[in-house]
Amino acid sequence: MTMLPFDDRDGFIWYNGEIIPWRDARIHVLSHGLHYASSVFEGERAYGGKIFKMKEHHERLLRSGALLGFQIPYSVAEIDLACEEVLKVNNIVDGYLRPVAWRGSEMMAVSAQKSKIHLAIAAWEWPAYFSADARLEGIRLDFAEWRRPDPATAPVASKAAGLYMIATLSKHAAEAKGYNDALMLDYRGQIAEATGANVFLVQDGKIHTPIPDCFLDGITRQTVIALARSKGYEVIERAIMPEELANTQEVFLTGTAVEVTPVREIAHYSFTPGAITRDLLLGYDEMVRKPG
Ligand SMILES: Cc1ncc(COP(=O)(O)O)c(C=O)c1O
User: Does Cell division count among this protein's keywords (predicted)?
Assistant: First the structure.
């Protein structure tokens, strides 16, 4: 499959308050964000022209910047409007939005207190490619060699670009072995999350998920926990060791991009996506696509 490179597409990008042609949305090579990972971003989806949990994403974007010591110079309401404008000018109904903020070029050293904070927002089409039945076949994960760091080591609640370095390494290693993604343990050896999604286990009819104390407490994670509880399932947030996968019947991931994605294998453990995964996958699909 040939991929259209992301810097050579038609369309428009919102860049520091203006809508500009897609190909003109450039940064200088001497940007602090590029050299020192002083960058935070969001991943959001629009369904039927409406951005799901838009306010929550933009509140998290501002919080992520604050955790890296910078203030994004736009309010949540301004970013909401900017995202809606990006969808409109690009005629996107079902798509993915990527706001990104970073420190600019005024200072090029570890200390960059006076650098300008930039914000850009791009969006591209992302229709539903696979039916629920195809998705229910499940994906395959390997264990990652890299671990999610201790909250004393990194600002783990920030959706910060730097935290994705180990995610890319882990996903590439898993893909090289024929897997779809990697399951990351945390610094204590507990199950943490996949490289871009949270994880849930079904054991004897109950849903278990790790406490998000060293990784992102995903907006989809919170949505699916509420959905599961509203359907009468018991959801338990607790420390989970990888050996417990032996007593686990179903596993699924949650995230803006993956929505609810069943998992059929994690290294030598196998699962059968079952009734609870199916119920939540369909329930989430229905919720995000609900008009109004
Ligand atoms: C590392 C990581 N964990 C979890 C998630 C899920 O977060 P959300 O449901 O807010 O998309 C994401 C995706 O944003 C992610 O990149």
Answer: no
Residue 89 near residue 49, CB atoms below 8 Å:
no
The residue nearest atom 15 of ligand 1, judged by CA position, is 196
> With bands split at pLDDT 50, 70 and 90, how would you rate the model's confidence at 291?
low
Residue 218, ligand 1, Cβ within 6 A: yes
Give me the mean pLDDT over the 152-175 stretch.
98
The CATH number of domain 132-288 is 3.30.420.10: no
Fold of the 12-125 domain? D-amino Acid Aminotransferase; Chain A, domain 1 (3.30.470)
Ligand 1 site, residue 210, Cβ cutoff 6 A: no
Residue 113: CA count within 13 A, CB half-sphere: 0
User: Would residue 177 show up in a list of annotated catalytic residues for this protein?
Assistant: no
Q: Is 196 in the pocket of ligand 1 (CB under 6 A)?
A: yes
Shortest-distance atom of ligand 1 to CA 43: 14
What does the pLDDT read at residue 1? 56
Q: What is the pLDDT of residues 253-274, one digit of tens each?
A: 999 999 999 999 999 999 999 9
Any atom of ligand 1 within 6 Å of the Cβ of 219? yes
Q: Do the beta carbons of residue 240 and residue 201 sit within 8 Å?
A: yes
Per domain, the residue ranges of the chain are 12-125, 132-288
SS3 track for 144-165: CCCCECCCCCCCCCCCEHHHHH
The strand ranges marked E within 90-245 are: 95-103, 117-125, 139-143, 181-185, 191-194, 198-203, 206-209, 235-237
Atom of ligand 1 nearest to the CA of 193: 3
What residue owns the CA closest to ligand 1's atom 16?
196
Atom of ligand 1 nearest to the CA of 167: 1
